[in-house]
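FYI - complex with zinc ion, inputs then prediction.
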Amino acid sequence: MYYSRKKPQAELPTEMTDIWSCVNEDCNGWMRKNFALDKEPVCFLCQSPMKHDTRELPMLNESGSAVQVVNKPESKDE
Ligand SMILES: [Zn+2]
């Protein structure tokens, strides 16, 4: 699939990743299954149940950097 919009960043390799997705349609909460501690987690945003889903995500290193991403002090939401 091709997009006409410019990509500001270099393309990262992606893979279909198992995730938990919030059942609440008004909520964007989701987490990688690899980082879910509970067998059936609840959404950290709205505490709704979560359902199994897949999403194409950038591949992560074995080092599990995503855990550090959660704890990073600086917000880069801009
Ligand atoms: Zn939610």
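The radius of gyration is 14 Å. Helices lie at 65-71.
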